[in-house]
Design goal:
Number of helices: 9
CATH topology of the largest domain: Transferase(Phosphotransferase), domain 1
Distance between the termini: 46 Å
CATH class of the largest domain: Mainly Alpha
Strand order of the largest sheet: 4-5-6-8-7
Number of domains: 3
Bound molecules: adenosine-5'-triphosphate, magnesium ion
Structural class: alpha+beta
Radius of gyration: 21 Å
Shape: elongated
Largest sheet: 5 strands, antiparallel
CATH superfamily of the largest domain: Transferase(Phosphotransferase) domain 1
Length: 289
């Protein structure tokens, strides 16, 4: 949990971060990293490493295991701490605040940057449903070996890159920074579409905007892949589409079925809730044309 990380962040100190990075490097080779290797990768003497590992363990940033010698690995708290440290050092955020969203696949927090509110999204893919993710996610490529942290990192990278490509043309949050499994992005005021009730005129208006955005996205070569009333944020003045990590490019072998599913989801939602009587096939044709 991020609260624990934030609580102990200042006490980790430079040498603690060196040890965390040492374990992270070791995890490219080992599932559990032997303490000697932690010392080598962190560039710190064994005595210092022992002291630091004790502290990191107390802060719940690592997990330790006895297999002959002691072995260690990062957990998601440790990974969060490393990303936060980078954002702090790069001046991408000044402080981290309350939770705005928490689910199986991401922990989303408000943060401050030069007096403005921004969002930090910590990806958690792979933490729960490893198998399902492995089957569904395009960004894993042909990799056979990956940790849950690598999956989360690839998801964040994908989301950052797509937001970066789209944000000047499509209504999506502007991305500001990316490190490991985490993204700093624009804070979107508003509620999930699922939690608002529109009048008929507004429902038509918003639906038309969303179709235009899907069309623009498509013409730029992308498909969202998880379009739903939960991934659309709406307020009096704006509507934005969020949550792009599972998006695919048009050359993906299943791109057309993902597009169809996205459009069906959106049309069915508006038809069900607002009786707009939209013809899904026509809508799909309009987007492809
Ligand atoms: N840029 C943003 N501005 C404001 N709120 C956001 C932003 N990004 C995400 N959120 C909030 O956090 C929630 C979860 O974010 P997102 O949909 O990107 O992640 P997710 O992978 O779907 O995670 P979950 O498993 O929680 O569904 C959103 O539904 C929204 O309420
Ligand atoms: Mg979502």
């Amino acid at each position: 949990m991020l609260d624990k990380v934030v609580e102990n962040f200042k006490s980790i100190e430079d040498k603690g971060f060196k040890v965390l990075r040492g374990i992270e490097t070791g995890m490219k080779t080992y599932h559990w990293v032997p303490i000697d290797e932690v010392s080598t990768f962190s560039g710190l003497p064994l005595e210092e490493v022992r002291y630091r590992l004790d502290r990191l363990d107390k802060f719940e940033l690592i997990e330790g295991k006895k297999i002959g010698n002691k072995r260690f690995k990062l957990n998601f708290n440790g990974y969060d701490a490393l990303a936060l440290n980078v954002f702090a050092n790069r001046d991408s955020i000044d402080s981290i605040g309350g939770e705005v969203g928490f689910g199986k696949e991401a922990e989303v927090r408000k943060a401050k940057w030069k007096g403005n509110e921004v969002i930090v999204k910590f990806h958690r893919e792979g933490k729960v449903s490893f198998r399902k993710i492995k089957k569904e996610r395009d960004y894993l490529g042909d990799r056979k070996h990956f940790s849950s942290m690598l999956i989360a990192k690839l998801a964040a990278k994908r989301e950052y890159e797509v937001l970066d490509e789209l944000s000047s043309d499509v209504r999506v949050p502007e991305p500001f920074d990316w490190n490991r499994h985490s993204i700093v992005m624009e804070n979107i005021e508003g509620d999930e579409l699922a939690n608002v009730t529109l009048n008929e005129e507004d429902a038509n208006f918003i639906f038309d905007i969303l179709v235009d955005e899907i069309k623009k996205t498509y013409s730029l070569g992308f498909i969202h892949g998880d379009m739903s009333e939960f991934n659309i944020l709406i307020s009096e003045n704006q509507v934005k589409i969020i949550d792009w990590s599972q998006s695919v490019n048009l050359d993906h072998p299943n791109s057309q079925s993902f597009l169809k599913r996205d459009v069906e989801n959106l049309c069915s939602y508006f038809n069900r809730k607002y009786q707009l009587g939209i013809n899904i096939k026509d809508c799909l044709e309009k987007i492809r044309s």
